[in-house]
Amino acid sequence: MTDQPVPSDVLNELAALRAENATLKQQLKSETQLPMSLEEFKRYGRQMIVEETRGVEGQLKLRRSKVLVVGAGGLGCPCLPYLAGAGVGLIGIVDNDVVETSNLHRQVLHDSTKVGMLKCESAKEVLSRLNPFVVIKTYPVRLNYSNAFDIFKDYDIVLDCTDTPLTRYLISDVAVNLGLTVVSASGLGSEGQLSILNFKNVGPCYRCFYPVPPPPNAVSSCQEGGVIGPCIGLVGVMMAVETIKLILDIYTLDNFSPFLMQYSGFSLQSLRTFKMRGRQVKCQACGENPTITRDTIEKGDVDYELFCGQRNYNVCLADERISVKEFQNSFLSPGEFNHILLDVRPHHHYEISHLPNTYNLTVKELRDMDGSIAALQSQIPNIHGQSEVLVMCRHGNDSQLATRILKDQFKIANVRDVRGGFFKYIDDINPTLPKY
Amino acid sequence: MVNVKVEFLGGLDIIFEKQRTHKVNVKRDGEQEVTVGMLIDYIVLNMIKNPKDKDVFIENDTIRPGILTLINDTDWELEGEKDYVLEDGDIVSFTSTLHGG
Q: A-contacting residues of B 42-81, CB under 8 Å?
């Protein structure tokens, strides 16, 4: 090799690269000394400068926190993006449901292109785009006594965004046994409720508030009772506020007092905070002599189904029911109209859509007539003991109860329930009618 | 006579002609004090129009499970439950527990 002079442009390039390398090294050094990346400072700045969060200290608490959200529906959807946005380090989502069109008015993480997709995966997709610094774990399973402990054990806080008393008791019981705090909420119609349960393993649990479950016929779901999207949404957003406060230690053992918030959307919006009882000595889950322990739950000894009960709709014999096809062929074809069609859905459901030539009386209205045929005739003029009556409701549950009442109390011999109800009729016979 | 406000929340208003708040005067016999227990009897006797609706509100002679009772926004468990003695202006709220999500 000969000693040729290095071209000046190469030397210049070398000097530039060396300078750049030094800057990068310096930057890397200062960044590794920082508790978070510069990007995270920028991303969380607006909440870090709220003094109560204690800036970097609070942000690191959020990053270290692990929050499990059970249910990615009407409560979970509005809550989750705020948790992800705030920088909660690990977010778990438990939900085995798939997105349906009827969810979209309130479950705002999902959209029309995601119908049929798992809700937990749909949520993860949105949240990962919102904040790539957050780890999202999905559990496409139905929470039950055998999987709950295994899922819960990796988290510090559990959010109950579910929709049945059964899962509410289960979540509370498992959280009590693992020492986790629960943010619990619910909503229906234009109202919502929110509470913090088992706070730092000393606050009251769900069973302290509700030692005895409500009778199954007093429990209404969103599918049944309806729900206003922003009303339940507001409660979901409030859950995010409570969760952030828990993580930032705004609540302490000294200042925490059990509460239940009640939101009403109609007519004037109102939010009330009720002061609630503390932990109950006699509580079966968190009291002095608990019978609901990890062992009894995992063995299946705590029978949640039996405890919460179920409504029994199967009150008709096979020959007291007909299929929608038989119904169509025998009773809806033009000609002499000797039979009576009774739709027992609530009136406001009936008004949305119904079949022609039908009467509309609810199960409650029938029951309140105490079997008086005169009272029934004031609503259905031509009905009598020998009338042929076909009863339908939305899905074929209430119509069975109504069939029973018409036969047993009104002594109308020839009453039959249309199996699967109006919606089954729409699905199988006439899809041009509106389903809601 | 004691004048109180009674509220039915969480959908319970359905059995009270869809009216959420009611002004109630409970009369007392002689010197007797009016307790929340007596108010509940009064509600069952005079305010539930349809006798078939009683079991929406009452079960085994007490408030049905799943309904919270609050006296001036405080869980009645902290206030002596049925034995709480009402004063003029008290607010007694009954709220059905919601389960939807």
A: 50, 52, 56, 59, 64-68, 70, 73-75, 77-78
Q: Which residues contact A292 (CB under 8 A, 6 or more apart)?
A: A173, A176, A177, A207, A284, A285, A302
Backbone angles phi, psi at A233, to 5 degrees: -60, -45
Query: Does the residue A390 lie in any domain?
Result: yes
Catalytic site positions of A: 222, 393
Of A340, A387, A378, A334, give the one whose Cα is nearest residue A359.
A340
Residue A151 φ then ψ, to 5° = -75, -45
Q: Which residue, A371, A379, A364, A382, is CA-closest to A406?
A: A371
Q: Report d(CA A237, CA A81) in Å as an integer.
A: 9
pLDDT at A199: 98
Q: B24-64 pLDDT, tens per residue?
A: 999 877 778 999 999 999 999 999 988 889 999 999 889 99
Confidence of residue A335 (pLDDT cuts 50, 70, 90): low
Instruction: Name the residue among B50, B73, B101 with its Cβ closest to that of A161.
Output: B101
Q: Which residues contact A95 (CB under 8 A, 6 or more apart)?
A: A70, A71, A72, A73, A76, A118, A119, A120, A123, A139, A140
Ranges of each domain in chain B: 2-96
A45 within some domain: no
- Indicate whether A252 belongs to any domain: yes
Q: Are residues A364 and A224 in the same domain?
A: no
pLDDT at A297 exceeding the cut of 60: yes
**B71: closest chain A residue by CA:** A274
Domain boundaries, position A273: 65-308
Going by CATH, does the domain composed of B2-96 fall within 3.40.30.10? no
Helices marked H in A179-303: 206-209, 222-225, 229-247, 294-298
Q: How much is the pLDDT for A222? A: 74
Is residue B12 less than 8 Å (CB to CB) from chain A? no
Contact status, residue B33 vs residue B17, Cβ threshold 8 Å? no
Taking only the tens place, the pLDDT of each residue in A355-402 is: 999 999 999 899 999 999 999 999 999 899 999 999 999 999 999 999
| Res A29 pLDDT > 80 | no
d(CA A415, CA A390): 6
| Separation CA A364–CA A311 (nearest Å) | 16
A310 min Cα distance to partner chain B (Å): 15
